[in-house]
Design brief:
It contains 24 helices and 4 strands. The chain has a two-stranded antiparallel ribbon. It has a two-stranded antiparallel ribbon with strand order 3-4. Helix 1 runs antiparallel to helix 24, helix 9 (202-235) runs antiparallel to helix 14 and helix 14 (284-302) packs parallel to helix 21. With 550 residues, the protein is mostly helical. The protein is rod-shaped and about 115 Å long. This is Glypican-1. Residues 481-494 have a biased composition (Low complexity). Its main location: membrane.
Length: 550
């Protein structure tokens, strides 16, 4: 009869949960409790020591310090923290692009302002009533130039033509005060103006040079703003449910497993982040094109289009044109009279314009070419550094934010335990995530917000390409522009045409360097202890009947 207590004792020993630490007591959860409280959560219900983890849905179901509520809270926290990392990284790029825009915009506006001020300072002394009675014509010109630069829907060539027409009409009347010149007569005179060239070659020459310079400057400034806006909108894209689970497993599951001091494996982190930012990486091609296009236009601005000289000397070219008209006044008037007939003599008293003209003042242009050269050099350096932003973002986040271990570390968190991480690192972009072992990514469903931003990059690059060859472009709002071809550029037909799902047959196996879990909530070490428990049960089965038979 003494056999039964002994057999019962053996059964109890065999059925007790086996621990990887060979019977040592449960580990303390003090570190997790401290972290959990520091994140702003209540410590009520948080275990003091490890508990069985069958309830876990994201983390490995071994012994754990996390309840279901803690796992959910950590998942939400990891999501908000990862999105904050994205926004912080994006703000740095935005700040760089915005600073470049601000520097160039300030330089260009200052160039235009100085030219206008020089005109206002010198023209009253140079031309007397020729200027004072026509101030609005000059003010309107600079106003139109500013509006064009700020991307208003203005035809720059037409604006310049209108300026010369209005100026010619006003000056012709002032230089011929003895005649009564009607609007109809002025219309006739303007029709012959191109043939007579009253202002010499200045209008044609200035139109060609100023148009190219303004187109380049406007597109260049706009390119920085578009780039910044794209980064802002893409940085606000929310994480998917699958990505949230993967980031939680990366960042907080080691704490739940009592491995707070173990850093994530670098390649493991890269696969998680590349999976989460697969759509963002598809911006890379068009983003690089934009950066390259901005650098090409920058060279034009500081080179052939010579913005400093062209914009900074507008007032001097106008003065040159007026001087041409004054010097050839008699011959031009004769040609106009010949083509349009003699106007009637005015009954009003006439006064000579020449008597009202002041002494000649020399106009000078203060060059700021060196400042422009420095601006362009600084911009090109920053643009070069930003070219690979989208495909280097995962590495940057893993090394600087997630604080992943070194690539050679074999004692890092690999998603299951402390060890090495064996799966290969995925490529960049959506199509390369079909076999990502860490994040479920549907490569047939590109993010539409990001596809729209890819289209914006294409449109801006096209504008810069036109500016590079001196073609005007229409800066209308294209925020809603989307086309089927644009949304699919990063998802080839041979991929998007087939709705691929990550079934076990197409997905690479997870080859973490740990034993396979038993599925009953025990860790790898516990699984290795099970054979000894089975031997005990077998011993009971053999020994107990023998004692009973005796």
């Amino acid at each position: 009869m003494r056999v039964f207590p002994w057999g019962f004792w053996l059964l109890c020993v065999a059925s007790a949960p086996a621990r990887g630490d060979s019977g040592s007591k449960a580990r303390s959860c003090a570190e997790v409790r401290q972290l959990y409280g520091a994140k702003g959560f209540s410590l009520s219900g948080v275990p003091q020591a490890e508990i069985s983890g069958e309830h876990l849905r994201i983390c490995p179901q071994g012994y754990t310090c996390c309840t279901s509520e803690m796992e959910e809270n950590f998942a939400n926290k990891s999501r908000s923290e990862f999105e904050a990392m994205m926004k912080e990284a994006g703000r740095s790029v935005q700040a760089t692009l915005t600073a470049q825009h601000r520097s160039f915009d300030s330089y260009f506006q200052d160039l235009l302002n100085k030219s206008e001020k020089a005109l206002y300072d010198a023209f009253p002394s140079m031309y007397g009533e020729l200027y004072t009675q026509n101030m609005k014509v000059f003010k309107d010109l600079y106003s139109e130039l500013r509006r064009y630069y700020r991307s208003s829907n203005i035809n720059l060539e037409e604006a310049l033509n209108e300026f010369w027409t209005r100026l010619l009409e006003r000056l012709f009347k002032l230089m011929n005060p003895q005649y009564h010149i009607t609007d109809e007569y002025l219309d006739c005179m303007v029709k012959h103006a191109e043939q007579h060239k009253p202002f010499g070659e200045v209008p044609r020459d200035l139109k060609v040079k100023a148009t190219r310079a303004f187109i380049a400057a406007r597109s260049y400034a706009q390119g920085f703003l578009v780039g910044s806006d794209v980064v802002k909108k893409v940085s606000q894209v929310s994480l998917s449910h699958e990505c949230t689970r993967a980031v939680m497993k990366l960042m907080y599951c080691p704490h739940c497993r009592g491995m707070s001091s173990v850093r994530p494996c670098n390649n493991y982190c890269l696969n998680v982040v590349k999976g989460c930012l697969a759509n963002q990486a598809d911006l890379n091609t068009e983003w690089k094109y934009l950066m390259d296009s901005l650098m090409v236009v920058a060279d034009r601005i500081d080179g052939p289009y010579n913005v400093d000289t062209v914009i900074g000397t507008i007032h001097m070219r106008i003065a040159e044109a007026i001087s041409n008209l004054q010097e050839n006044k008699d011959s031009i008037t004769a040609k106009v009279f010949q083509g349009c007939g003699n106007p009637k003599i005015s009954t009003k008293g006439s006064s000579s314009e020449d008597k009202k003209r002041r002494g000649k003042v020399t106009l000078e242009a203060k060059s700021s070419a060196q400042a422009l050269e420095m601006l362009v050099l600084d911009a090109k350096g920053n643009l070069t550094a930003l070219k690979t932003y989208w495909i280097t973002l995962p590495s940057s986040l893993c090394s600087k934010k997630v604080m992943a271990s070194s690539a050679s570390d074999d004692k890092c968190w690999n998603g299951m335990t402390k060890g090495s991480y064996l799966p290969e690192v995925m490529g960049d972009g959506l199509a390369n995530q079909i076999n990502n072992p860490e994040v479920e990514v549907d490569i047939t469903k590109p993010d539409m917000t990001i596809r729209q931003q890819i289209m914006q990059l294409k449109i801006m690059t096209n504008r810069l390409g036109n500016a590079n060859i001196g073609n005007d472009v229409d800066f209308q709002d294209t925020s809603d522009d989307m086309s089927g071809s644009g949304s699919g550029d990063s998802c080839p037909d041979d991929v998007c045409g087939k709705r691929l799902s990550k079934s076990p047959s197409t997905r690479q196996p997870e080859t973490h360097a740990i034993p396979k879990q038993s599925g009953h909530g025990v860790n790898g070490a516990s699984s290795r202890s099970l054979p000894s428990a089975s031997l005990l049960l077998l011993s009971v089965a053999v020994i107990a009947p023998q004692h009973l038979w005796r």
